[in-house]
């Protein structure tokens, strides 16, 4: 990427070099042409035999003259952060001397994985290919040449010496005014690519039964499958289970029926699995095993080729997700994950498609509220559901509510901005649902917080 403004530092170094060599270099002209290798820039002003020594001396002077005063360009930090949000890596490919380029990166604290210096034009393609770069951002026509030689998408910014017309004539794919426009462009670019990949993946699957909980991910997958395959080739299967809150069932059915798909509600019996009731850290594996052991044969009997879950790309990176592995071992497919769609992208695409679930709060199963090591029972799950309904009734503006069952104690998690509203009246209402004690979590709601309890003292498990 073009991340820093080296013009002043370059000019200062050039002045010092010129004084030592007794040469008056045209600073304004040369700083306007930054990009090409230094020996090419100096070629019109020094005899050929003097150039290698001048280049070496320039590199020696540069750290003291150019590192400290060189700033980042507007939007540089935000551009790098945008790549990180998408779990990408950052490769800095530059014509600059590698050591000096690294000094800039270190001094400015730029979030860069690899610095590949001293390469120019199509030679940049070697570094781009070596590190698997799919997008190359530059500001010079020769950056465009490097991107095209590597088969990477060329994104050009107008912060260098080349005009938009020159960059387009060189074959760039995208022209941005500067790096401040890059995050929005990247978001749109990746969303478009991933939605296209999702459609292609779904078309290849044939007839699809979606494991449909009614949440944002499975709702989006169901809608995407209908778009790709037609409603007649899609079914929504919502498990009739004690772990699915009753309040979720009717909205789920209404949504699925609005898409014109067939709705199936097979009973699942995860409570009959000892590993599920025991509620150790691998509980989700037993739940997903039960779900797929029911849906797999049902799909085959009803003429559907695959069972698809709403697992997204963020889920796969979340670490402790034994249920994902269990579903995969039973043949479930994950089209959202395969397309690389993140939770944020699922919500954004759902919003654009006018799906009512686009901003629906996360709604994990009721068993996820119970601390590991405490037995899962229908009565315990019903108690949690009553407690959460009580909190929502008293704090109706809450978006995210969880009542964590720690045994005799209920720990209430709610949107952080609303924590102070969980007063003694709310805690009393929670106790009335069957808990001896109730407390509010001062950290507020956070998805997956029960995993942290695996490391807490025994009395919480």
From TrEMBL:
InterPro entries: HAD-like_sf (IPR036412), HAD_2 (IPR041492), HAD_sf (IPR023214), LarE (IPR005232), Ni-pincer_cofactor_biosynth (IPR052188), PGP-like_dom2 (IPR023198), Rossmann-like_a/b/a_fold (IPR014729). Keywords: Transferase. SUPFAM superfamilies: Adenine nucleotide alpha hydrolases-like, HAD-like. CDD domains: LarE-like (cd01990). One of its GO terms (molecular function) is sulfurtransferase activity. This is ATP-dependent sacrificial sulfur transferase LarE. It comes from Nocardioides mangrovicus.
């Amino acid at each position: 990427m073009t991340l820093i403004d080296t013009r002043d530092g370059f000019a200062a170094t050039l002045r010092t070099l010129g004084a030592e060599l007794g040469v008056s270099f045209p600073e304004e002209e040369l700083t306007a042409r930054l990009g090409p290798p230094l020996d090419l820039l100096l070629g019109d002003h020094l005899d050929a035999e003097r150039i290698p020594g001048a280049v070496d001396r320039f590199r020696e002077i540069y750290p003291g003259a150019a590192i400290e005063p060189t700033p980042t360009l507007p939007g540089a930090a935000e551009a790098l952060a945008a790549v990180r949000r998408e779990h990408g890596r950052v490769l800095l490919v530059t014509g600059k001397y590698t050591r000096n380029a690294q000094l800039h990166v270190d001094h400015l604290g730029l979030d860069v994985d690899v610095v590949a210096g001293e390469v120019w034009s199509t030679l940049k393609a070697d570094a781009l290919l070596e590190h698997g770069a799919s997008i190359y951002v530059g500001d010079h026509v020769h950056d465009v040449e490097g991107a095209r030689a590597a088969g990477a998408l060329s994104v050009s910014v107008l912060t260098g010496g080349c005009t938009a017309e020159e960059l387009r004539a060189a074959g760039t794919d995208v022209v941005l005014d500067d790096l401040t426009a890059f995050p929005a462009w990247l978001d749109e670019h990746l969303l478009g690519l991933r939605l296209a990949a999702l459609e292609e993946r779904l078309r290849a699957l044939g007839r699809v039964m979606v494991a449909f909980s009614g949440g944002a991910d499975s709702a989006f997958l169901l809608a995407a499958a209908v778009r790709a395959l037609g409603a007649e080739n899609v079914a929504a299967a919502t498990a009739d289970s004690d772990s699915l809150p009753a309040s979720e069932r009717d909205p789920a059915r209404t949504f699925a029926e609005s898409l014109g798909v067939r709705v199936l509600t097979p009973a699942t019996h995860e409570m009959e699995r000892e590993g599920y009731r025991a509620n150790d850290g691998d509980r989700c594996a037993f739940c997903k095993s039960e779900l797929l052991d029911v849906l797999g044969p049902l799909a085959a009997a009803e003429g559907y080729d695959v069972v698809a879950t709403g697992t997204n790309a963020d889920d796969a990176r979340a670490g402790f997700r034994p249920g994902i592995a269990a579903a995969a071992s039973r043949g479930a497919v994950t089209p959202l994950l395969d397309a690389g769609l993140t939770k944020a992208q699922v919500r954004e695409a759902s919003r654009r498609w006018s799906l009512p679930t686009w901003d629906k709060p996360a709604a994990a199963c009721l068993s996820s509220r119970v601390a590991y090591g405490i037995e899962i029972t229908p009565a315990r799950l019903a108690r949690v559901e009553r407690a959460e309904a009580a909190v929502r009734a008293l704090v109706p503006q809450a978006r995210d509510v969880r009542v964590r069952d720690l045994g005799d104690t209920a720990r209430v998690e709610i949107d952080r901005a609303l924590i102070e509203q969980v007063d003694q009246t709310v805690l009393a209402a929670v106790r009335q649902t069957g808990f001896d004690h109730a407390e509010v979590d001062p950290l507020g709601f956070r998805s997956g917080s029960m995993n942290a309890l695996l490391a807490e003292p025994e009395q919480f498990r």
